[in-house]
Write a structure and sequence with these properties.
This protein is mainly alpha-helical. It is about 75% helix and about 0% strand. The protein has one domain.
């Protein structure tokens, strides 16, 4: 079970926010499961149709491309939640003080938050530009900005998670609590 960040616990007296946070986490993970399963099924059907029957559905390639973008950004957001993203730890390992490691992780989380907010901003700008142009996808004929929406949406989710992780680390740093590395810890 995913625990609510310390920052949210301070604001949540009745446990309502914790339940909402938990529900959103489960929804996010189950959405990833179902979209990934649908992608696998569509890809399998496409391969069977192409090589066994000699026929290919044109819309399947577009569905797999757009669902792959959705899966990549949703999976990245889940990776931030669990602290499983690849990281360079050269400087981190060279610091002998837990307080300095904690401060470094706080700075890294805030930088990641800022970078993802920039990605979200430009992703939103691109999606809205496509909406203004009124372009449609080649085969499915849906507005082209819709497949671009996962980029800003999940970038904001990742940015908020990094911000909450940074808030937890700042809270622990100020309170003088021992440093808890994010890797392997539920955020």
């Amino acid at each position: 079970m995913v625990r609510s960040p310390i920052v949210l616990k301070q604001l949540d007296s009745g446990g309502q926010m914790r339940r909402i946070w938990s529900f959103l986490g489960r929804l996010e993970e189950w959405t990833l499961v179902f979209v990934l399963l649908a992608l696998a099924i569509v890809s399998f059907v496409q391969v069977v149709c192409r090589y066994v029957v000699g026929f290919s559905f044109t819309w399947m390639e577009e569905v797999t491309r757009y669902s792959s973008v959705f899966i990549a950004f949703l999976g990245a957001a889940i990776g931030v939640k669990y602290g499983t993203h690849f990281s360079m730890i050269f400087l981190y390992e060279r610091l002998s003080s837990d307080r300095m490691r904690q401060l470094l992780m706080l700075i890294v989380n805030l930088i990641c938050c800022a970078v993802l907010l920039v990605v979200a901003w430009y992703g939103w700008e691109q999606a809205m530009k496509l909406k203004r142009f009124g372009t449609l996808t080649a085969v499915l004929r849906i507005p082209k900005y819709i497949p671009y929406l996962p980029i800003p949406l999940f970038s904001v989710v990742m940015a908020l998670r990094y911000l909450l992780n940074g808030g937890n680390q700042l809270y622990d740093f100020i309170a003088g609590r021992p440093f808890k590395p994010l890797k392997g810890r539920e955020a």
